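Regression test case RT-17, inverse folding.

Input:
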């Protein structure tokens, strides 16, 4: 730490992204990326013409992409916010709706960036314990008196609330903002986006990083009532109005329009997820009922940390979290059929000892 860092940030513990070792070629199942390439339409969209225009600033309204997202969700442009990955959208949301000295609530086991943003922006975070079976119970969020952010499906458990449960959460208090982070919802197919048309205290966040095979592009979005979006735009125009570059805008617009391509990728992932769950259960694992593109699994006779290390030695990366309640689990991203066969075969071999 330099002597110049503000004392406000001296205790900040930054988020740890999934590792990307370069010593050999790994089967990478540790950051919930898609095993499939982006739609061919995305490649077409980044044409020479767009590249030649890079001397100009991008459209700060991000009109093309917001309109395409609005059409996709049956809302208007002013119901859509876009960010540089959904992390960017979450950051703007924490700034806008909790704010310095404000409050935010989330589950105790969830996406690791929520506490980091809370710390960065001086927000007091209430961590609501998941139940013993790792489920989120809506009634546990009843009288908190502050905005709530919930990943649905949750990470790293993969467990999901139904649309009815989300609606109950929204109805608990019309004066409290509910932020549903639906980064993995295309694999769960129970989005609360429709409810944003009915309720003015719901914001739904999505991303192009998982189901749309564009983690490297960095695009996320929010769908909400126009006033909420205006608040987020106030934050964005006060910080970085050019958070979406021209190439990204074109590429993401092409992606959102190629629903057929992505639907077929999603179907394959869901099929591989269910197959792999069954195979892991046969090998003696406890496997949570994930509705996302990853599997959270624990073996009664083999430590999760050793399993993670042994798989890495064998060229397969999965994610291990040392946090107390989940230290017996590994999180395995659902990849292609071949990748899942490899991971299951290696695990079987490791368990044989
Ligand atoms: C629950 C959840 N939300 C948001 C994100 C951020 O995704 P991105 O910034 O790539 O859109 C992740 C990434 O892993 C996640 O797990």
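Golden output:
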């Amino acid at each position: 730490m330099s002597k110049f860092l503000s004392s406000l940030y001296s205790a900040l513990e930054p988020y740890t992204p999934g590792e990307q070792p370069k010593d050999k070629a790994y089967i990478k199942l540790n950051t919930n990326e898609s095993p499939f390439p982006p739609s061919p339409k995305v490649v077409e969209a980044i044409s020479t013409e767009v590249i030649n225009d890079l001397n100009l600033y991008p459209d700060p309204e991000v009109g093309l992409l917001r309109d395409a997202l609005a059409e996709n969700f049956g809302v208007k442009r002013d119901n859509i916010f876009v960010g540089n990955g959904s992390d960017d959208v979450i950051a703007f949301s924490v700034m806008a709706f909790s704010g310095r000295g404000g409050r935010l609530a989330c589950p105790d086991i969830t996406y690791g960036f929520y506490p980091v943003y809370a710390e960065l922006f001086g927000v007091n975070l209430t961590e609501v314990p998941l139940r013993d079976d790792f489920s989120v119970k809506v009634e546990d969020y009843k009288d908190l008196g502050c905005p709530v952010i919930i990943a649905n499906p949750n990470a790293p458990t993969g467990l999901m609330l139904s649309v009815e449960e989300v609606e109950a959460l929204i109805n608990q208090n019309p004066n409290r903002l509910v932020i549903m982070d639906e980064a993995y919802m295309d694999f769960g197919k129970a989005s609360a986006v429709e409810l944003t048309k009915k309720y003015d205290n719901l914001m739904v966040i999505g991303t192009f990083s998982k189901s749309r095979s564009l983690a490297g592009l960095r695009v996320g979005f929010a769908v909400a009532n126009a006033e909420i979006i205006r608040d987020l735009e106030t934050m964005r125009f006060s910080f970085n109005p050019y958070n979406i570059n021209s190439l990204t805008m074109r590429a993401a617009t092409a992606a959102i329009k190629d629903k057929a391509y992505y639907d077929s990728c999603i179907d394959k992932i869901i099929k591989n997820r269910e197959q792999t769950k069954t195979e892991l259960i046969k090998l003696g694992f406890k496997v949570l009922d994930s509705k996302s593109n990853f599997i959270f699994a624990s073996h009664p006779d083999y430590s999760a940390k050793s399993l993670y290390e042994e798989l890495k030695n064998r060229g397969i990366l999965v994610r291990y979290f040392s946090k107390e309640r989940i230290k017996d689990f590994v999180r395995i991203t659902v990849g292609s059929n071949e990748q899942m066969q490899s991971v299951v075969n290696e695990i079987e071999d490791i368990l044989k000892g």
